[in-house]
Amino acid sequence: MAVPRNSLRNFLVLAKNTIQNAINQSQKITFVIGNESADLDSFTSSLIYAYVRSGIPTPHAFTPLYVPVTNIPFSGIQLRPEFLALLPRANIEPRHLITLDDLPDLSDIKSKLRPENTKWILVDHNSLQGALGSIYSDRVGGVIDHHDEENKVPKDTGSEPRIITKSGSCTSLVTEYCRETWDALSDSVMSSGAAHRQGDDLVDDSTMATLWDAQVAQLGLASILIDTTNLQAKEKTTEHDIKAVEYLEAKVMACPQVSAQYDRSKFFAEIDAARKDIGGLRLHDILRKDYKEWTERGMKLGISSVVKPICFLQEKAQREANGRDADESFLPAIREFSEDRDLAIYALMATSTSLEGKFQRELLIWAFTADAVCAAKKFLSDAGGELGLEDWHGSDGRPRGKQSETDWMRIWWQRNVEHSRKRVAPLIREAMS
Ligand SMILES: [Mn+2]
């Protein structure tokens, strides 16, 4: 049975209840989960997939309802000002989101959500990492992603997609995949002709559905515009992104109430400004806000992406340490962050805009064990050219680094700025393996 046509808000309430039923009555459940950096793209990819696919019954689906999961604890939402800016556009609040806190505790998740009762669709990643991965990776049965293929998802995914292809935003690929179903969903409401009361007004179903579609479409647009810099970044933007924006904007334009307040560039600028508004966060939270990790040959790698330059982080560290020297505050904070996570290698990717308005990248890599130091040096010799690494000097003109056999740290300008973590992570992992 299909889930009744509903607003995103009501859909999320229903989806949250579904988790409780699955736990209390051992029912089957399907999750659509983004990656553990839980950026906008992961968030909207899982929402759109779950919302649209739950609206029309999929033959042979594991369950009729798909539950979208944001792959962080609830407290992580507050670290993402871009979420807080965006959610009202879809008439939802943080409490509506389904996060890791809505799943049973990891210590007994296996007994409460037995693996055989679950199915997992991955969006914006193609290998389920961490504790969930160690329990449920055999239950992954579908993927839509734009990262390098990890060959972890089975080749045959039956009635679910197996799409891994290059695009600026994974949300574009999800939109493309859901398009036909979404259109069918909209058409089915248009023809029903039913009406119901909203306040003093009699509103027909199709008006409501047009509003709901426009709300969800705006969420998708936010991710695609952020990931492609308003479709202006040539090296990131693909045909998938352009078509998806066209499609989603048509949904916005179909709803006068929403379209009156929609202007693509203004919308992009608003969400982008919110995303960069991290001055109020603590350094530790900035480092964990957009963070991913991997394990290669028993060595753990963690990579933070930050939307501010390293000097911003140094100043922040200095203020938090009550004004000691910037380096003496910053580097110990980075080391502590890495030690807390038991990392062999930590990388920090910082992006910023120069005074001349040019997009720029800085890269810090710190290796904490002998094996990790070998890997880090190998990374530098194998990938330094491709990434355009150039020694970084602080505002005082001094380079920074540590060069011992078990403690090796370097900071560079990454002059080939088209390479994001999507490329840098595989390069470091390759050097580690
Ligand atoms: Mn993505």
UniProtKB/TrEMBL annotation:
Pfam family, one: DHH
Keywords in alphabetical order: Hydrolase, Manganese, Metal-binding
Residue intervals of the DHHA2 domain: 268-432
UniProt-listed SUPFAM superfamilies: DHH phosphoesterases
Single Gene Ontology MF annotation: metal ion binding
Cofactor(s) of this protein: Mn(2+)
Species whose genome carries this gene: Glonium stellatum
Entry GO terms, CC: cytoplasm
PANTHER family (UniProt xref): BNIP - RELATED, EG:152A3.5 PROTEIN (FBGN0003116_PN PROTEIN)
Protein name: Exopolyphosphatase-like protein
